[in-house]
DNA sequence: CGCGTGACGTCCC
DNA sequence: CGGGACGCCACGC
């Protein structure tokens, strides 16, 4: 395993997998942590590839706390169900008290 | 090697 | 203040 050879996607997976239970983060925060704040789209694109892996993609939302990627989950509200299952309140596809449950990898890692 | 893509973010009007 | 448009850049083909 050449972790040094890990691509951008793999790095994203490593960060997302380290998100604590009951906490969420944003694509931009992950991108910034990876030093590619301008590549926030790559993070979302990476999540698309994360489908089928043990990556809690449901804990990753946009900077506004909106469940923009919920449409990519199996169910219509599966992402919301998973978040609520962790004690996170979601209202109208938006996380309530987003900043309160926000987990910043730049500061925590 | 070049083109298309994308679950975002930010600027512009 | 709200909506629209563009840039961004790694990855797959």
TrEMBL record:
Lineage: superkingdom: Bacteria
One Pfam family cited in the UniProt record for this chain: DNA_binding_1
Gene3D superfamilies recorded: Winged helix-like DNA-binding domain superfamily/Winged helix DNA-binding domain
Transmembrane intervals: none
Signal peptide span: none
Molecular function terms, GO-annotated: catalytic activity
UniProt keywords, alphabetically: DNA damage
Coiled coil segments of this chain: none
Domain Methylated-DNA-[protein]-cysteine S-methyltransferase DNA binding: residue ranges: 8-88
GO term, biological process aspect, one: DNA repair
Protein name (record): MGMT family protein
Organism whose genome encodes this protein: Aestuariibaculum sediminum
């Amino acid at each position: 395993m050449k972790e040094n050879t890990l691509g951008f996607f793999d790095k994203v997976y490593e960060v997302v997998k380290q998100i604590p239970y009951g906490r969420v983060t944003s694509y931009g925060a992950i991108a910034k942590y990876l030093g590619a704040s301008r590549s926030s789209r790559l993070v979302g694109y990476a999540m698309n590839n994360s489908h089928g892996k043990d990556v809690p993609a449901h804990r990753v939302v946009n900077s506004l706390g909106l469940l923009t990627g919920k449409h990519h989950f199996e169910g219509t509200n599966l992402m919301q169900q998973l978040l609520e299952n962790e004690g996170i309140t979601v209202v109208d596809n938006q996380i309530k008290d987003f900043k309160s449950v926000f987990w910043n990898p730049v500061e925590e890692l």
